[in-house]
Give the backbone structure.
Amino acid sequence: MNEPTKSGNPPSVEGIVTRASPFSVKETLERLQAAIQSRNLNLFAHIDHSGEAKRVGLTMQEAHVLIFGNPKGGTPLMIASPLLALDLPLKILVWQGEENRVWVSSNSVAYLRDRYAIPQELVGNIAVIDAVIEQALKV
């Protein structure tokens, strides 16, 4: 099981990059949405896992997934590697861990590149995820 480490840091999972957010879950989501919009990307969905759990009488930590991308960037990737459609559009998980710490997790660009043998000239099309997260978490 992937439980937080003794230091309170999130678990380490191959292919996943997790960054601490200095903001609340709500503000982190707002900042990510603004960063997505500022880069002319489409926010396709916002899945509120914790809200849906609450709706059916269950309790869990705050957890939200933003699904976003751009057909101009994603289509060439899926032409080059059709199975990449399993991981596109791009996804960012915003979640609350122990001691109310807020985390932002996503697939590693290098992991996706290697997993799907993405041609180097197309890697920048998925690397936008790192730029979006960095922009949103900048203090």
